[in-house]
């Protein structure tokens, strides 16, 4: 029975450590997610501008 209590205490400590570290981990992940979103937006914008300029050139020929 003492072994079960020891494991329970270890799990409580681990749960506390994860709870404390979660905001820090989120802070590390959020900038990467935002950067990825902006990179996708920029790529989409560049593709749209490239297609529009190609269409304008094709019409002017």
Task: Describe what you observe in this structure.
This protein is mostly helical. It has a domain at 23-61. The protein is 97% helix and 0% strand. The chain contains one helix and no strands. It has one helix spanning 2-60. The chain is rod-shaped. The N and C termini lie far apart (86 Å). The mean pLDDT is 72.
Low-confidence spans: pLDDT under 50, at least 5 residues?
none
Order of helices and strands: H
Rg over alpha carbons: 26 Å
Percentage of helical residues?
over 70%
Choose one word for the global shape.
rod-shaped
Strand content is under 5%
For the termini, the CA-CA separation is 86 Å
- Number of helical segments with 4 or more residues: 1
**If you average the pLDDT, what whole number results?**
72
Which structural class do the helices and strands define?
Answer: mainly alpha
Number of strands: 0
Summarize the main sheet: none
Describe the structure in brief:
The protein contains 1 helix and no strands. It is an all-alpha fold and 61 residues long.
Summarize the SSE layout with pairings.
Blueprint: H1 2-60
